[in-house]
Specification:
The chain is mainly α and 227 residues long. The chain has a single domain, classed as Tetracycline Repressor, domain 2. Helices cover 61% and strands 3% of the residues.
Amino acid sequence: MRFSAKSSAGRWACASGGCSRGALAPNSDNCVVTANASDGTDDDLLTRIVAAARRLFVDNGVSRTRLEDVSAAVGISRQYLYRFVSGRDKLIELALLARCRELGAQLAARANLDTDDVTAAVVDQVVAGAMIAHDSEFGLLAAAMPRDRVNALLTSADSPLHRINTRVFGPLFARAISAGLLRTDVSVDAMVTWLQGVMTMLAGRSDLDEVSMHDVVDTFVVPSLFC
């Protein structure tokens, strides 16, 4: 899988793991960032910090954005910024998770849960999960992250994306099981985890357009999941 910091077809990714002062909710399906402190003001400030970092990463590039730039944009000192993040790498992770929240909402909103053809709906959602990965901000941030951390979040059952995909695919799979269409020898959770790997693989296939992805999913994914 290739991540391009220069192309609008950059592949999606988030990153798991916590911060020393600002904590991530690794199993949260909306990828909200929160501060460890109980003061709601700290939560609001962390949100502002992440928003400022995202703007600077996009405008100036990740490598050219310093913590001093972020703290200045928010109106705090660099020393105070360290109350929330241990360094620039953790700030990149927070930025990735913030984008994850937005992309997850898009995936959930476009899921066709009421269609008569549940098989086609699953195929459509798998393709959408891969195609929505062609996001320029995620490509920029993912390129600045270690590959193993990016891949772990994309494919792990403990990642925020797993919650999002379970919320999207769960109702479709439940309908398919009720209709006797879906295999029952593996759990829905295991199917979702497997599909995360499939979507990650498809997202890395620069030779496939949306139509070609539908063909691949019809040919290989449908027979693997459906009776």
